[in-house]
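Sample intake sheet
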Amino acid sequence: MSGHGLSEVHAAHIEHLRSQPVTVDDEGLLIGDQYVMFFAEADLMRLHVQGLLRGRTGLDVLEVGLGLGVFAEQVIVHGFRSYTAVEPHVGVAAIAQHDLLREHAGRTRIITDPWQLATYPPESFDAIMYDTWPPDGFADADFAQFVESVALPALRPGGRFSFFVSGHELNSNRRAVLERNFSSCEFTFYEMSAKDTPKHWTKPTRHFVIPIACKEQP
């Protein structure tokens, strides 16, 4: 089971990202000259992991968009059976493999294909986290495609799905995708404190939504 291939726009976007150098400094991860993730997001990622994995152990977890590995680090703290990340920038993947995942090499895997080209065995994951950098104008369309062609088939019954949401609320398009494909969805909210906000913060707000959607059980 896989996505539907790459459009010309997506292929060009991935090629551009892969051509950019990767840097990690005291604040976070830069691809080229743009910050794409911050260490200050650790508390936010901890809440995503708690929502996805609460009450369960020994889970198979998929993350799409590895970044600094902040989500992965929280998965390791919680405990897991297997962890798979999709990260098409090989420089980002190499940093995580060296700094975070090498001690868990037997239970971790990084796929360096774009998520649209990777293969996901049916009903093979208990939890999926989605956090990518799509081409401009494709965020909602990519989200719907990922949910319908990857997340829903790859989750086991009762499996949970979450994704990165910056802002005070979830937009109507994504809410409709969740309502159409999952049996239930709960929302919690998080605000990063002003004192913890990085100097080079790139997002338009310090507010986030944490959605946890559940696949129907038989």
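Comment: The longest strand covers residues 155-163. Residues 88 and 135 are 14 Å apart (CA to CA).
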